[in-house]
Amino acid sequence: MEITIEPVTDSPLLQIDNLHASAGDTEILKGVSLSVNRGEIHALMGPNGSGKSTLASVLMGNPVFEVTEGSVHFNGEDVTEDPPTDRGAAGMFLAFQHPEAIPGVSVIQFLRQALSNRTGTDLTVLELRLKVMDAMKELGMESSFADRYLNEGFSGGERKRNEVLQMAVLQPELAIMDETDSGLDIDALRTVADGVNKLTNPERGFLIITHYQRLLDYLTPDHVHIFMDGRIIESGGPELAKKLEEEGYDSFRAVLNQ
Predict the structure, then answer these.
(1) Predicted confidence (pLDDT) per residue in 50-72, tens digit
(2) The pTM is what?
(3) Is residue 104 in a domain?
(4) CB 252 within 8 A of CB 226
């Protein structure tokens, strides 16, 4: 049975309200509120240890973290307590900072199972291969990539391109990208950014988590948020990322003491 998610047009694609989350006795998220509409690219920028990756994990339902207050709504539905599999099937996707290698499982085998979970339908091997080949051609990837074991022996750039390929095949409505630029050289960064740009459309939203301005040289966000000490302390447009690049995070730390 194919699962069809009808968008709720009068509500944000992603709505985070006063989200608090902890790992054990340590509170990491301290009241995060954020709305992402369809067709928007949001950049979340913050230093190491600020809780950015925790936010990505909590949004996808990682059981390591406990939501102690607040809520997460996706497509108008409360998903705060939903498991990761349900969120993925609904159209949420997380591109990991450090994608895991899975020896013995090829890229195309992984995509077949993931697509089945996402849509509720099973494509034939030929149908899937044609779909994957079309996506790889669009992204400028070698066709042999599909038969390699998932992330095994992949360079950092190949692992990140594989995440973009997954997005192209699974067609999520919300793509959360956790420090996709981490460890990439300029050529790999351009390749990943080009892939993301090709996947933008009026029905898809992006939440891009990053340390640096450099990824935003190739991706133009609609909104930029500065994230420190488990919360968003300032929001603005692309000019905010440029200010951060010029002045560093110290220029924003005074807000934490207000």
Answers:
(1) 999 999 999 999 999 999 999 99
(2) 0.89
(3) yes
(4) yes
Residue 6 belongs to a domain: no
- Is residue 7, in this structure, part of any structural domain at all? no
Tell me what the mean pLDDT of segment 17-28 comes to.
Answer: 97
pLDDT at position 258, please? 61
Q: How many domains does the chain have?
A: 1
Cβ atoms of residues 252 and 244 within 8 Å: yes
Helix extents (H) in 120-183:
125-139, 156-170
Determine, yes or no, domain membership for 33: yes
Which residues are registered as beta bridge partners of 28? none
What is the CATH number for 75?
A: 3.40.50.300
Rounded to an integer, what is the distance from CA 202 to the centroid of its chain? 17
Burial 105-130 (b: 16+ CB within 10 A, else e): ebbbbbbbeebeebbeeebeeeebbe
Residues 6+ apart with CB under 8 A from 248: none
When mean pLDDT is compared over 71-80, 146-155, 162-171, 172-181, the highest value belongs to 71-80
Rounded to a whole number of angstroms, the CA Rg of the chain reads 18
Residue 206: phi and psi, rounded to 5, are -125, 135
